[in-house]
Specification:
- The chain has 548 residues and is of the alpha/beta class.
- Among the domains are: 1-30, no CATH class; 80-202, 3-Layer(aba) Sandwich (Rossmann fold); 209-390, no CATH class.
- 40% of the residues lie in helices and 16% in strands.
- Helix 2 packs antiparallel against helix 14 (505-547), helix 7 packs parallel to helix 9 (374-387) and helix 10 (410-441) runs parallel beside helix 12.
Length: 548
């Protein structure tokens, strides 16, 4: 601050006999040492605060185990399979030696062709003969060893060509010299059905939902234009779920955790008009849904089909009751023996059309009993299996009587577990490699301790799925693959990583410049002035010494 020259100050100074100094910016009130101390104190505060500010605003980027992630492509999960061949009462000794050798060759070709959807299989084959040709299905329903399968050759006429009993395969031969030559192909269809395009066509693959450890199943009873009557005002869904859906969910509990919700909706009008009325050969009128109309059947804008209480993926199952003036309503079918009252929307859910008896306006409303829901919920069960990737059972294999009580056979369940385990391992490895690639490309992407822990956990779970791991059963491999998939997904979608994903350096400068520029300019100007004043003082002192 400079001295201020006023008449009052000038008079007081003259009375004291002091010289009067006018207004001058070069003559501050404070002494030089005080002024320098003030400027220095500001700069000391800045220098002390700068490390704290840098630490608090810096991005934490912990090193990722890139070498371990790069090695993931060189390792592959392998599923151990133990096959016990029981030749039973086959009397031809030469045949008992040659046929097992042929079976081993067939399985070796199967192992060599392990690629794509066919998981890598490690066979361990044991052959025995002369055992008691009793019925192996008597104890098949009780605890069976996983990854262990038995082939029973029998020459009795009571046995069909191929019969499944748990994880047992009964192979019937009419005599000792007439053994079936398609055992290898049948065993392939049972162990790796996804490798057979006949059992698993591309259309079936396209409708399988992406794997998730948790699913919500939303069952909706949807009435179209209930104001004209003939609506279903309620349904006994608990009994139907207990009888047709929950047994399937119990079998799939090792792969997914399910949450079920249900609701009844009214006035679910379609956004299009079905084709009709059309008359068949008997003169009966009906309405039809074309394939194009089935693809846009769901009116997501007006139908609230889920509660939205969680972010878990949802599979929808709609029991649609058409308006009384547009019944019966069916779907167009091109294949024989294909249902004309239901269809699947790939990776989304399924729809079943229920046509009550009332075909006229003003028909009475009904309550759907458990008996009425038997047919639709059987369809829902098959649609759920198709959406979750349960493979088709080979048509040449007959299932035993007790196995009909189980909606999914052990062969199907084991094949699904191998598929999902292999899928999880590959998706986890891809997610980890993507994380490394993103971190290398984006300098602002943080890598915190939580992300590093999730990556390490996913790598440890992947290591546990390799053949070198001590735990190599199918259930353990599946459990480790689920852990790897879950941890790698959490790391990839970690909120701490994506927070600065679209925050480039230019944005940082644009934020900090208006904050620090007004403070930095006076400090820098004061520092430059003090440096110049110090130089002039040194120069004046040097000139004074020369003159003296």
């Amino acid at each position: 601050m400079a001295a201020v020259h006023t008449p009052l100050l000038e008079g007081e100074a003259k009375e004291r006999g002091e010289d009067v100094l006018g207004l001058s910016l070069a003559h501050p009130v404070h002494e030089d040492s005080t002024r320098r101390a003030i400027v220095a104190s500001y700069w000391i505060v800045v220098l002390l605060v700068f490390p704290v500010w840098y630490y608090m605003t810096s991005i934490e980027r912990l090193p990722l185990p890139t070498e371990r992630i790069d090695l993931l492509g060189q390792r592959e999960v392998q599923f151990p399979i133990k096959i016990d061949v029981d030749l039973g009462d086959i009397g031809d000794l030469e045949l008992s030696r040659t046929y097992p050798r042929k079976l081993v060759e067939d399985l070796a070709r199967l192992r060599q062709g392990s690629s794509g959807e066919l998981p890598p299989l490690a066979f361990d084959i044991a052959i025995s003969a002369g055992e008691d040709p009793g019925d192996p299905c008597t104890d098949a329903a009780s605890g069976e060893e996983e990854d262990s399968y038995r082939l029973h050759f029998r020459t009795q006429d009571a046995y069909p060509m191929f019969a499944s009993c748990g994880r047992h395969l009964l192979i019937g031969a009419r005599d000792g010299t007439d053994l079936p030559h398609s055992v290898g192909d049948t065993l392939r269809d049972l162990l790796a059905p996804y490798s057979n395009s006949r059992l698993h066509p591309p259309a079936a693959e396209s409708r399988i939902a992406q794997y998730s450890p948790t699913y919500r199943l939303a069952f909706t009873l949807l009435n179209e234009d209930a104001s004209v009557g003939g609506a279903a005002v309620g349904w006994e869904i608990q009994q139907a779920l207990s009888q047709y859906i929950r047994p399937t969910l119990a079998q799939l509990s090792a792969l997914h955790n399910f949450t079920i919700e249900s609701q009844v909706q009214y006035f679910g009008g379609l956004t299009f008009d079905p084709l009709g009325p059309l008359s068949d050969d008997d003169g009966v009128e009906s309405w039809r849904l074309s394939e194009e109309q089935m693809s846009v059947f769901v009116n997501s804008a007006e139908w609230t089909l889920t509660s939205g209480v969680s972010n878990d993926p949802v599979l929808h199952f709609i029991l649609f009751v058409p308006s009384a003036d547009r019944r019966p309503l069916y779907t167009e079918t091109r294949l024989r023996l294909q249902r004309n009252d239901s269809f699947i929307l790939p990776q989304w859910g399924g729809v079943v059309i229920h046509n009550p008896s009332g075909h006229h306006e003003g028909a009475p409303n009904t309550l759907l009993s458990a008996h009425d829901l038997a047919g639709p919920f059987k369809v829902f069960r098959s649609q759920l299996s198709a959406l979750l990737g349960v493979p088709q059972f080979p048509p040449q294999v007959v299932t035993s009587a007790w196995q009909h009580k189980s909606p999914i056979t052990p062969w199907q369940l084991d094949a699904l577990k191998r598929r999902r385990a292999l899928e999880n391992v590959r998706n986890s490895a891809d997610a980890l490699r993507s994380i490394v690639s993103l971190v290398n490309q984006i300098e602002n992407m943080p890598v915190g301790q939580d992300v590093l822990g999730q990556v390490d956990g996913a790598l440890a779970a992947l290591d546990a799925t390799t053949p070198a791991a001590s735990s190599s059963s199918l259930s353990q491999i599946l459990a480790h693959s689920i852990d790897a998939f879950t941890l790698s997904s959490k790391a990839f979608f970690n909120p701490g990583m994506i927070g600065l994903l679209y925050y480039p350096t230019e944005h940082k400068y644009a934020v900090y410049t208006p904050l620090f520029a007004p403070v930095a300019v006076p400090l820098i100007v004061a520092l430059v002035r003090e440096i110049k004043a110090a130089r002039e003082r040194r120069r004046a002192a040097a000139n004074k010494q020369k003159t003296e």
